[in-house]
Design brief:
5-stranded mixed β-barrel, OB fold (Dihydrolipoamide Acetyltransferase, E2P), hydrolase, Rossmann fold, P-loop_NTPase, cytoplasm, alpha/beta, disordered N terminus, 10 helices, flat
């Protein structure tokens, strides 16, 4: 289905430059019939959104109950007279990057939506944290997008080749590119791997904003120095922003992640630790916990040196964390279901009392 909006790929200034396609046009058909405009959220700030439309950029309010994030596609009610534009609906998300909320409650925090490629920026200025990389990979795989690992600051690495080998062991099946914004190493190779909507994720100080500026071809995003005492950087990106890339597609830069808690990421973990899950199928017991059970193929692989003990320890740790998050989500859903039933019962009792009083 084609939309009457100016969304053809031959119009780089239109929504096609931000990822609009025929599938989205079909999804939007009912909203279009209601006189609404398609818009892509490029930033969220203090309850309002910056969005792009066929008519240009807009600043819009959001209807109550909507929680748009950078990358969302939305239905916009254009502002008429003195009324400001409003987002009134969100299209279903194709993909979403979700971590546990900063408050560590049972609800996940969506970092970005409708992402095609997740670039995980990992600095080589210090020792590579393989466990953190595995955690980020689980987040990326679970989103439904394709992860790519960008090892940054290779010009400051003590042993770039060893770091690359270690990263490859932690990220099987994932493209890994060693890059340096100083020397230009790996940037052309990385650019060739970027498709569609690209999001940059990484710890503060990983060089995300510097890398983003290099990919964008200009100094669009602020960068900061790294503190010498702990090697960490300041949060130079203060919100998630969506910016068109010169070679096509769009880039979402995100604030540095101090913590990456997993939220319902069982499939992502299965992808990151695929070799362990394949070994587990050979265990004697179907519910093997890979701790002390006889006939455990996973423990046998560790003993033979085929599977690093660190890798198994990381797998166990992330599985426990994910199970804890899932249990909190289940408890919240049960509580919400119970609360709904209580409200229904209260409403029924009030109705019965009113009916009895009318007799």
């Amino acid at each position: 289905m084609h939309s009457s909006h100016s969304t053809s790929s031959s119009d780089p200034s239109g929504l096609s430059a931000h990822g609009w396609d025929e599938y989205l046009a079909a999804e939007f058909a009912d909203h279009e019939a209601a006189g609404l405009l398609p818009a892509r959220v490029v930033g969220v700030d203090r309850g309002q959104c910056d969005a792009v439309t066929e008519r240009g950029p807009v600043r819009a309010a959001t209807d109550r109950g909507l929680e748009p994030v950078t990358g969302d596609w939305a239905a916009l009610l254009p502002g008429e007279a003195r009324q400001e534009p409003r987002l009134v609906a969100l299209l279903p998300r194709r993909t979403a990057i979700v971590r546990s909320s900063a408050a560590r409650d049972s609800r996940g925090q969506v970092l970005a939506a409708n992402v095609d490629t997740v670039v995980l920026a990992v600095s080589l200025a210090g020792a590579l944290d393989a466990g953190r990389l595995e955690r980020l990979l689980a987040l990326a795989w679970e989103s439904g997008a394709r992860p790519v690992v960008a090892l940054t600051k290779t010009d400051r690495a003590a042993d770039p080749a060893a770091a690359l080998t270690e990263a490859a062991a932690a990220a099987p099946g994932v493209d890994i590119v060693a890059t340096s914004a100083v020397t230009g190493e790996g940037l052309a190779e990385l650019t060739a791997l970027l498709t569609g909507t690209v999001v940059l994720l990484g710890q503060s100080g990983a060089g995300k904003s510097t890398l983003a500026n290099t990919l964008l071809g200009e100094e669009v995003l602020a960068t900061g120095e790294i503190r010498e005492q702990d090697g960490k950087g300041r949060h130079t990106t203060v919100r998630r922003e969506l910016i068109p890339l010169p070679g096509g597609g769009v880039l979402i830069d995100t604030p540095g992640l101090r913590g990456v808690g997993l939220h319902d990421a069982a499939e992502g973990l299965g992808q990151v630790f695929a070799e362990i899950e394949e070994l587990a199928e050979e265990c004697r017991f179907g519910d093997c916990g890979h701790e002390t059970e006889p006939g455990c193929a996973v423990l046998a692989a560790v003993e033979s040196g085929a599977l690093p003990a660190r890798r198994l320890a990381s797998y166990r740790k992330l599985l426990r964390e994910n199970a804890w998050a899932a249990s909190r989500t289940d408890a919240r859903l049960r509580a919400e279901r119970t609360q709904r039933w209580k409200e229904i019962i209260r409403h029924q009792r009030a109705t019965y009392r009113f009916r009895d009083q009318q007799r």
